[in-house]
Specification:
Elements: E1 4-8, H1 14-19, E2 29-33, H2 36-44, E3 50-57, E4 61-62, H3 64-71, E5 77-85, E6 88-92, E7 103-106, H4 111-121, E8 126-129, H5 133-141, E9 147-150, H6 154-157, E10 161-167, E11 174-181, E12 193-201, H7 208-217, E13 223-230, E14 238-245, H8 251-263, E15 264-274, H9 292-306
Parallel strand pairs: 1-2, 1-3, 7-8, 7-9
Antiparallel strand pairs: 3-4, 3-11, 5-11, 6-9, 6-10, 12-14, 12-15, 13-14
Protein backbone atom coordinates (compact mmCIF):
# COMPACT_ATOMS: atom_id res chain seq x y z
CA UNK A 1 0.00 0.00 0.00
CA UNK A 2 1.44 3.42 -0.93
CA UNK A 3 2.53 5.52 2.05
CA UNK A 4 0.29 8.38 0.97
CA UNK A 5 -2.83 10.15 2.16
CA UNK A 6 -5.34 11.47 -0.35
CA UNK A 7 -7.26 14.60 0.58
CA UNK A 8 -9.78 17.03 -0.85
CA UNK A 9 -7.65 19.48 -2.77
CA UNK A 10 -6.15 21.42 -4.35
CA UNK A 11 -3.44 22.72 -2.03
CA UNK A 12 -4.66 25.35 0.39
CA UNK A 13 -7.94 23.78 1.52
CA UNK A 14 -9.13 23.67 5.11
CA UNK A 15 -8.91 19.89 4.64
CA UNK A 16 -5.16 20.12 4.07
CA UNK A 17 -4.72 22.33 7.14
CA UNK A 18 -6.65 19.85 9.31
CA UNK A 19 -4.78 16.88 7.83
CA UNK A 20 -1.41 18.37 8.70
CA UNK A 21 -2.35 18.32 12.39
CA UNK A 22 -1.96 14.52 12.35
CA UNK A 23 1.57 13.58 13.48
CA UNK A 24 1.88 10.72 11.00
CA UNK A 25 1.65 13.09 8.02
CA UNK A 26 5.36 13.78 8.53
CA UNK A 27 6.02 10.34 7.04
CA UNK A 28 3.30 10.34 4.37
CA UNK A 29 3.02 11.86 0.92
CA UNK A 30 -0.05 14.11 0.89
CA UNK A 31 -1.81 13.96 -2.47
CA UNK A 32 -4.64 16.40 -3.35
CA UNK A 33 -7.67 15.11 -5.27
CA UNK A 34 -10.34 17.13 -7.03
CA UNK A 35 -13.29 15.74 -5.06
CA UNK A 36 -14.28 13.73 -2.01
CA UNK A 37 -15.32 10.89 -4.31
CA UNK A 38 -11.98 10.73 -6.11
CA UNK A 39 -10.06 10.81 -2.81
CA UNK A 40 -12.09 7.91 -1.41
CA UNK A 41 -11.88 6.01 -4.70
CA UNK A 42 -8.09 6.28 -4.51
CA UNK A 43 -8.24 4.28 -1.27
CA UNK A 44 -10.61 1.73 -2.77
CA UNK A 45 -8.29 1.31 -5.76
CA UNK A 46 -5.19 0.89 -3.58
CA UNK A 47 -3.64 4.14 -4.81
CA UNK A 48 -3.58 5.66 -1.31
CA UNK A 49 -3.31 4.32 2.20
CA UNK A 50 -6.11 6.56 3.47
CA UNK A 51 -8.20 9.58 2.51
CA UNK A 52 -8.89 12.65 4.61
CA UNK A 53 -12.22 14.37 3.92
CA UNK A 54 -14.77 16.67 5.62
CA UNK A 55 -17.82 14.90 7.03
CA UNK A 56 -19.70 17.39 9.22
CA UNK A 57 -19.84 21.06 10.12
CA UNK A 58 -21.43 22.70 13.11
CA UNK A 59 -23.63 24.99 10.99
CA UNK A 60 -25.23 22.66 8.43
CA UNK A 61 -24.57 19.21 9.90
CA UNK A 62 -23.40 16.27 7.81
CA UNK A 63 -21.52 16.79 4.54
CA UNK A 64 -23.85 14.84 2.28
CA UNK A 65 -21.25 14.12 -0.41
CA UNK A 66 -19.03 12.33 2.09
CA UNK A 67 -21.88 10.53 3.83
CA UNK A 68 -23.26 9.27 0.51
CA UNK A 69 -19.84 8.03 -0.59
CA UNK A 70 -19.43 6.09 2.68
CA UNK A 71 -22.96 4.68 2.40
CA UNK A 72 -22.47 3.35 -1.14
CA UNK A 73 -19.74 1.43 -2.90
CA UNK A 74 -17.01 -0.79 -1.54
CA UNK A 75 -16.94 -0.48 2.28
CA UNK A 76 -14.47 1.87 3.93
CA UNK A 77 -13.77 2.58 7.59
CA UNK A 78 -13.12 5.70 9.68
CA UNK A 79 -9.96 5.60 11.82
CA UNK A 80 -9.48 9.17 13.07
CA UNK A 81 -11.31 12.47 13.30
CA UNK A 82 -10.08 16.05 13.52
CA UNK A 83 -11.99 19.21 14.46
CA UNK A 84 -10.95 22.51 12.91
CA UNK A 85 -12.31 25.97 13.74
CA UNK A 86 -13.39 27.70 10.55
CA UNK A 87 -13.41 31.36 9.56
CA UNK A 88 -13.34 32.59 5.99
CA UNK A 89 -11.53 35.30 4.12
CA UNK A 90 -12.84 36.93 0.95
CA UNK A 91 -9.98 36.44 -1.51
CA UNK A 92 -9.66 38.64 -4.58
CA UNK A 93 -7.15 39.53 -7.26
CA UNK A 94 -4.93 42.48 -6.27
CA UNK A 95 -6.66 45.81 -6.74
CA UNK A 96 -10.21 44.45 -6.53
CA UNK A 97 -12.61 46.50 -4.38
CA UNK A 98 -15.80 45.31 -2.73
CA UNK A 99 -17.86 47.28 -5.25
CA UNK A 100 -16.14 45.41 -8.12
CA UNK A 101 -17.38 42.01 -6.99
CA UNK A 102 -20.24 40.55 -9.04
CA UNK A 103 -19.51 36.82 -8.68
CA UNK A 104 -18.26 34.76 -5.74
CA UNK A 105 -17.43 31.09 -5.36
CA UNK A 106 -16.60 28.49 -2.70
CA UNK A 107 -17.43 24.93 -1.71
CA UNK A 108 -21.21 24.45 -1.21
CA UNK A 109 -20.67 23.79 2.51
CA UNK A 110 -19.25 27.30 2.88
CA UNK A 111 -22.37 29.11 1.72
CA UNK A 112 -24.50 28.50 4.85
CA UNK A 113 -21.58 29.73 6.96
CA UNK A 114 -21.33 33.12 5.21
CA UNK A 115 -24.92 33.62 4.01
CA UNK A 116 -25.75 36.49 6.36
CA UNK A 117 -22.45 38.24 5.67
CA UNK A 118 -23.17 38.05 1.97
CA UNK A 119 -26.67 39.41 2.43
CA UNK A 120 -25.29 42.39 4.33
CA UNK A 121 -22.17 43.22 2.33
CA UNK A 122 -22.74 41.76 -1.16
CA UNK A 123 -26.49 41.32 -1.58
CA UNK A 124 -26.50 41.33 -5.39
CA UNK A 125 -23.61 38.98 -6.18
CA UNK A 126 -24.02 35.70 -8.02
CA UNK A 127 -22.88 32.59 -6.13
CA UNK A 128 -21.28 29.67 -7.97
CA UNK A 129 -20.16 26.47 -6.26
CA UNK A 130 -16.61 25.15 -6.54
CA UNK A 131 -15.18 21.69 -5.89
CA UNK A 132 -13.43 23.09 -2.79
CA UNK A 133 -12.70 26.48 -1.24
CA UNK A 134 -9.12 26.37 -2.51
CA UNK A 135 -10.36 25.45 -5.97
CA UNK A 136 -12.55 28.53 -5.80
CA UNK A 137 -9.43 30.58 -5.05
CA UNK A 138 -7.73 29.03 -8.09
CA UNK A 139 -10.72 29.98 -10.27
CA UNK A 140 -10.48 33.58 -9.04
CA UNK A 141 -6.77 33.56 -9.88
CA UNK A 142 -7.70 32.45 -13.41
CA UNK A 143 -10.26 35.26 -13.73
CA UNK A 144 -13.32 33.01 -13.74
CA UNK A 145 -14.85 34.72 -10.68
CA UNK A 146 -14.32 37.97 -8.84
CA UNK A 147 -13.90 36.58 -5.31
CA UNK A 148 -13.75 33.36 -3.34
CA UNK A 149 -14.45 32.42 0.25
CA UNK A 150 -11.51 30.38 1.51
CA UNK A 151 -8.96 30.24 4.29
CA UNK A 152 -6.80 33.36 4.54
CA UNK A 153 -3.77 31.04 4.28
CA UNK A 154 -4.75 30.23 0.67
CA UNK A 155 -4.22 33.81 -0.53
CA UNK A 156 -0.45 33.60 -1.03
CA UNK A 157 -0.71 30.19 -2.69
CA UNK A 158 -2.95 31.59 -5.44
CA UNK A 159 -1.58 35.11 -5.73
CA UNK A 160 -4.66 36.70 -4.19
CA UNK A 161 -5.34 39.23 -1.46
CA UNK A 162 -7.69 38.86 1.53
CA UNK A 163 -10.13 41.74 1.04
CA UNK A 164 -12.06 40.80 4.21
CA UNK A 165 -11.07 38.35 6.96
CA UNK A 166 -12.70 36.69 9.96
CA UNK A 167 -15.94 36.09 8.07
CA UNK A 168 -18.44 33.74 9.74
CA UNK A 169 -22.14 33.84 10.55
CA UNK A 170 -21.83 31.51 13.56
CA UNK A 171 -19.36 31.97 16.37
CA UNK A 172 -17.03 29.03 17.05
CA UNK A 173 -17.97 27.27 13.80
CA UNK A 174 -16.12 23.99 13.34
CA UNK A 175 -15.76 21.36 10.65
CA UNK A 176 -15.13 17.70 11.43
CA UNK A 177 -12.78 15.76 9.16
CA UNK A 178 -12.18 12.00 9.09
CA UNK A 179 -9.33 9.75 8.05
CA UNK A 180 -10.80 6.89 6.04
CA UNK A 181 -9.11 3.63 5.03
CA UNK A 182 -9.89 0.11 3.96
CA UNK A 183 -11.63 -2.09 6.57
CA UNK A 184 -9.38 -3.57 9.26
CA UNK A 185 -9.40 -4.11 13.00
CA UNK A 186 -10.44 -0.90 14.81
CA UNK A 187 -7.91 0.78 17.05
CA UNK A 188 -8.04 -0.15 20.73
CA UNK A 189 -10.59 1.79 22.79
CA UNK A 190 -9.37 4.95 24.49
CA UNK A 191 -12.30 5.55 26.83
CA UNK A 192 -13.46 8.49 24.67
CA UNK A 193 -14.55 6.92 21.42
CA UNK A 194 -17.20 7.17 18.74
CA UNK A 195 -18.82 4.44 16.64
CA UNK A 196 -20.32 5.19 13.21
CA UNK A 197 -22.84 3.01 11.39
CA UNK A 198 -25.35 3.17 8.54
CA UNK A 199 -28.72 1.46 9.02
CA UNK A 200 -31.31 0.31 6.49
CA UNK A 201 -34.81 -0.64 7.70
CA UNK A 202 -36.41 -3.88 6.55
CA UNK A 203 -39.61 -2.00 5.73
CA UNK A 204 -41.34 1.30 6.34
CA UNK A 205 -43.70 1.02 9.32
CA UNK A 206 -44.93 3.21 12.19
CA UNK A 207 -42.28 3.39 14.89
CA UNK A 208 -39.55 2.01 12.63
CA UNK A 209 -37.01 4.68 13.48
CA UNK A 210 -37.97 4.41 17.16
CA UNK A 211 -37.13 0.71 17.02
CA UNK A 212 -33.66 1.48 15.68
CA UNK A 213 -32.98 4.21 18.20
CA UNK A 214 -34.32 2.02 21.01
CA UNK A 215 -31.40 -0.35 20.58
CA UNK A 216 -29.13 2.51 21.65
CA UNK A 217 -31.43 4.06 24.26
CA UNK A 218 -32.05 0.89 26.27
CA UNK A 219 -28.28 0.46 26.63
CA UNK A 220 -27.59 4.04 27.67
CA UNK A 221 -25.77 5.01 24.47
CA UNK A 222 -25.89 8.66 23.50
CA UNK A 223 -26.14 9.56 19.80
CA UNK A 224 -23.98 12.34 18.40
CA UNK A 225 -25.25 12.39 14.81
CA UNK A 226 -28.42 11.14 13.18
CA UNK A 227 -28.98 11.95 9.52
CA UNK A 228 -31.24 10.33 6.95
CA UNK A 229 -30.01 9.88 3.39
CA UNK A 230 -32.04 8.74 0.38
CA UNK A 231 -31.24 5.23 -0.82
CA UNK A 232 -32.00 5.98 -4.46
CA UNK A 233 -34.79 3.37 -4.44
CA UNK A 234 -37.58 5.97 -4.64
CA UNK A 235 -39.20 8.76 -2.66
CA UNK A 236 -39.49 7.89 1.03
CA UNK A 237 -36.70 5.28 1.01
CA UNK A 238 -33.98 6.31 3.44
CA UNK A 239 -31.02 4.93 5.32
CA UNK A 240 -29.76 6.46 8.56
CA UNK A 241 -26.20 7.59 9.28
CA UNK A 242 -25.51 7.46 13.02
CA UNK A 243 -22.58 8.40 15.27
CA UNK A 244 -22.86 6.93 18.76
CA UNK A 245 -20.73 7.34 21.86
CA UNK A 246 -18.55 4.35 22.69
CA UNK A 247 -16.42 1.68 21.02
CA UNK A 248 -17.49 -1.57 19.42
CA UNK A 249 -15.50 -3.41 22.08
CA UNK A 250 -17.74 -1.88 24.79
CA UNK A 251 -20.37 -4.44 25.76
CA UNK A 252 -23.25 -1.97 25.49
CA UNK A 253 -22.19 -0.88 21.98
CA UNK A 254 -21.58 -4.43 20.78
CA UNK A 255 -25.00 -5.55 22.05
CA UNK A 256 -26.68 -2.57 20.41
CA UNK A 257 -25.06 -3.45 17.10
CA UNK A 258 -26.13 -7.09 17.47
CA UNK A 259 -29.68 -5.92 18.11
CA UNK A 260 -29.59 -3.68 15.04
CA UNK A 261 -28.19 -6.50 12.92
CA UNK A 262 -31.19 -8.62 13.89
CA UNK A 263 -33.85 -6.05 13.01
CA UNK A 264 -32.28 -4.13 10.10
CA UNK A 265 -32.17 -5.07 6.45
CA UNK A 266 -28.52 -4.03 6.42
CA UNK A 267 -25.99 -2.53 8.83
CA UNK A 268 -22.75 -0.98 7.59
CA UNK A 269 -20.08 -0.54 10.26
CA UNK A 270 -18.03 2.60 9.55
CA UNK A 271 -15.62 2.26 12.44
CA UNK A 272 -14.89 2.94 16.09
CA UNK A 273 -12.29 5.66 16.64
CA UNK A 274 -11.11 8.26 19.18
CA UNK A 275 -13.26 11.34 19.63
CA UNK A 276 -11.63 14.69 18.87
CA UNK A 277 -13.86 16.79 21.12
CA UNK A 278 -12.97 15.29 24.52
CA UNK A 279 -10.11 13.54 26.27
CA UNK A 280 -10.60 10.07 27.81
CA UNK A 281 -10.54 11.40 31.36
CA UNK A 282 -13.32 13.88 30.62
CA UNK A 283 -15.92 11.26 29.67
CA UNK A 284 -18.43 10.45 32.40
CA UNK A 285 -19.27 6.98 33.65
CA UNK A 286 -21.87 4.91 31.78
CA UNK A 287 -25.44 5.01 33.02
CA UNK A 288 -26.22 2.53 35.83
CA UNK A 289 -26.64 -0.94 34.42
CA UNK A 290 -24.71 -0.32 31.20
CA UNK A 291 -21.05 -0.76 32.18
CA UNK A 292 -19.04 -3.69 30.85
CA UNK A 293 -18.84 -5.14 34.37
CA UNK A 294 -22.64 -5.10 34.71
CA UNK A 295 -23.11 -6.74 31.31
CA UNK A 296 -20.64 -9.48 32.33
CA UNK A 297 -22.37 -9.98 35.67
CA UNK A 298 -25.76 -10.24 33.99
CA UNK A 299 -24.46 -12.80 31.47
CA UNK A 300 -22.91 -14.79 34.32
CA UNK A 301 -26.23 -14.76 36.19
CA UNK A 302 -28.06 -16.13 33.12
CA UNK A 303 -25.45 -18.88 32.78
CA UNK A 304 -25.90 -19.83 36.45
CA UNK A 305 -29.66 -19.91 35.98
CA UNK A 306 -29.25 -22.24 33.03
CA UNK A 307 -27.11 -24.50 35.21
CA UNK A 308 -29.56 -24.39 38.09
CA UNK A 309 -27.08 -22.49 40.28
CA UNK A 310 -29.10 -19.36 40.85
Amino acid sequence: MPASYAYLGPEGTFTEVALRTLPETATRELVPYVSVQSALDAVRAGEAEAAFVPIENSVEGGITTTLDELVAGEPLMIYREVLLSITFALLVRPGTKLTDIKTVTAHPAAQPQVRNWLRTHLPDVTWESAASNADGARLVQEGRYDAAFAGEFAAARYGLEPLETGIHDAENAQTRFVLVGRPARPAAPTGADKTSVVLWQRDDHPGGLRDLLGEFATRGINLMLLQSRPTGAGIGNYCFCIDAEGHISDRRVAEALMGLKRICLQVRFLGSYPRADVKPGDVGDPLPGTSDEEFVAAADWVARCQDGRF
